[in-house]
Design brief:
Oligomer: homodimer
Order of helices and strands of chain A: HHEHHEEH
Largest sheet of chain A: 3 strands, antiparallel
CATH superfamily of chain A: Winged helix-like DNA-binding domain superfamily/Winged helix DNA-binding domain
Helix content of chain A: 55-70%
Structural class of chain A: mainly alpha
Number of domains of chain A: 1
Strand order of the largest sheet of chain A: 1-3-2
Largest interface: A-B, 58 and 57 residues
Distance between the termini of chain A: 56 Å
CATH class of chain A: Mainly Alpha
Shape of chain A: extended
Radius of gyration of chain A: 22 Å
Strand content of chain A: 5-15%
DNA sequence: CCGCATCCTTACCGATACTG
DNA sequence: CAGTATCGGTAAGGATGCGG
């Protein structure tokens, strides 16, 4: 069975799990950082604003488990730990970077649509309030 | 302020919210479907295996709010509702499709890495059990 | 410095029932 | 057909403290 037979729309397809793993808040950001070079735990923590130590730890661990990053611990005191991206991780980063760029380029349009939508919603609510008999 | 000034690594940057919205399990799949043409609610529901009616409803609503899809209701009995992708939604789908493909092409490698990792883990656990004094 | 363990709160999600 | 409303379980995530 080669990869042409798979489709992420099937519930049990492992591809679905892969997608789920990729599609979390932090993976995209972390991979984006690491493809510029290896980085230490707290350095990543500082760069990715808002991530907690616990969640960063979990995320890095699962990235390592999937072979997307490698963890190297140097026996210094205190211990130094470096995370680096793997070739396969880099290939993922390549496909995921455009996504981050898209978000940066299109956020204004999204915010505009959002305001328009919310405005239309309150107007509907007002109309319903002013002529409740219509309901 | 143009989009060059934004970066998703800042916690308060709206780009971050955009990324969070994109990066959920279902958005990628739904956009992928809709860029082949408009589709009705239950048709989407059937194609995206495992999604509940509630979550599909929520997801479509927020996609509409962000201007990524448009909802059209035809006054038939019973009502017919069609969801179509917008130009900006299509541009997102274009950057997100490679991601789905990446998942399909690399899942085997990921599963292999995962097995290796888990195996190494139980070996560590065994070693600890067999010579607890070492810990 | 780099985590893991614990507690605790919150947000998500499925199941179910009901409307137009 | 295409939803909305409500309830209850579960799992994610923040806060804190400890250990190698």
């Amino acid at each position: 069975m080669n990869h042409m037979d798979w489709n992420a729309y099937a519930a049990l397809c492992p591809t679905r799990q892969a997608l789920d793993r990729i599609a979390d808040k932090w993976t995209v950001l972390i991979l984006g950082l690491l493809c510029d070079g290896p980085m230490r735990f707290n350095a990543i923590r500082r760069r990715v604003e808002g991530i907690s130590q616990k969640v960063l730890s979990q995320t890095l661990k699962s990235l390592e488990r999937d072979g997307l990053v490698v963890r190297t611990a140097y026996p210094t005191v205190p211990v130094t730990v470096e995370y680096a991206i793997t070739p396969i991780g880099a290939s993922l980063a390549d496909t995921v970077t455009p996504l981050r760029r898209w978000a940066e380029e299109n956020i204004e349009s999204i915010l505009r649509a959002r305001r328009a939508y919310d405005q239309a919603e309150v107007q509907m609510a007002d109309a319903a309030f002013n002529s409740p008999i219509q309901r």
